Amino acid sequence: MPHDHDDHGSELSEMQLRIRALETVLAEKGYIDPAALDVMIEAYETKIGPHNGARVVAKAWADPAFKRSLMEDATKTVQSLGLIDRVGDHLIAVENTPTLHNMIVCTLCSCYPWEVLGLPPVWYKSAPYRSRAVNDPRGVLADFGLKLPADMQIRVWDSTAETRFIVVPMRPAGTDGWSEEKLAALVTRDCMIGTGLPKQPSEIA
Amino acid sequence: MDGIHDMGGMHGFGKVEPEENEPVFHAAWEARCLALNRAMGAIGAWTIDEGRAGIERLPPDVYLARSYYGKWALRLWNMVIARGFAGADELATGHALHSAKPTKRKFGITEVPRALTRGSFARPAPAPARFKVGNRVRARNIHPQTHTRLPRYVRGHIGIIDAIRGCHVFPDSVVIGAGENPQWLYTVLFDGRELWGESTDPTLKVSIEAFEPYLQAV
Are B45 and B51 in contact (CB under 8 A)? Predict the structure, then answer.
């Protein structure tokens, strides 16, 4: 759990005060138990995160039957791994190919597949990403240092309902015979959003 | 609502700036803020759609100036008061002064697992789906003053039904108090040039998740 500092400017101070007032009043009135908030926060900080998505992608790379099942029904298939208590409905896996690159955005708010990727990073929820992903995805990818071939098809998925998307990137070359655990080390959060590619074997050697 | 939140295709916000080794929360109050918002959702204080509408109703200058959790904090503050869970006087003094509003349940430790799981919004279909995969459809040119999930940048444009996602709670209906009114949900795929003009990168395609009332046959 990070600690508050006094040097973060006036918004933080105002927000600290507002949140303290809200928590105190809502607890005193009996709506919430602050200890339950602690348990929830700990889950977000430790249990829920992109390590879960990385295991899903690595298994899809290693196990063709699992991948087929994942592409057909990601909610059910991810649930079967038992990584988290329960996978939300309508998780959808979308697959990159040598001719197609997928990218996920939520232009209206911040919809994101929490169960497999954790809480979204600040940039995913920011105006620059939300505004540009749908009309200048190559420009956005350049901000991440990624340049795709000019003839690569780019498919942007705007998460405007309660469906959630995870990108299954292409398995890097030179990973034949790797264990799922080793493969998972190549899978970054950004490559499952589509703003990055998996690490190369040389990067984790 | 044609609000500032509907950002797809806007210009002028600058570069995306990823943060190296970003922490889950940047300050303790952000974590409390997230958890409080989820907790109030979990006790049934408001639905996910009503909560989103609460963010969208923030004034545009506030929306742009505040951080993500800053917006969540203001939404929580406003909605707790608007829905009678606490008075403005109580939040101002930081202590309970009046009795609580009855709720279906309290948010205790046993409620945490349910609150960590995204809700299920699929519902039995009241009627067969009107469109099939491959159908051409036009996104309606609608501008409701209230919450909608049809982004401005597709309105009036023609796309293809790419997938049928089942029947789901219709947000536009929930936020006006007209009930869940389940509707078929489709992935609709648009050519980049259809949305942004002939000079657009010909390799671009964009899809949205569209409820059936957002679409008309062409």
Answer: no
Domain end among B85, B116, B147: B116
Exposed, middle or buried: residue A82 (CB in 10 Å: 0-12, 13-18, 19+)?
Answer: exposed
The CATH H-level superfamily of A49-204 is Nitrile hydratase alpha /Thiocyanate hydrolase gamma (3.90.330.10)
Quick check: A160 and B150 CB within 8 A? Answer: yes
Return d(Cα B87, Cα B95) in angstroms, integer: 10
ipTM exceeding 0.95? yes
Task: pLDDT band for A12, please (50, 70, 90 cuts).
Answer: low
The residue in chain A having the minimum alpha-carbon distance to the alpha carbon of residue B5 is A108
| B98-113 confidence digits (pLDDT tens) | 999 999 899 999 999 8
What is the phi-psi region of residue A82: left when phi exceeds 0, alpha when psi lies from -120 to 50, beta otherwise? left
User: Whole-prediction pTM value?
Assistant: 0.95
The answer to whether the CB atoms of A126 and B17 lie below 8 A apart is: yes
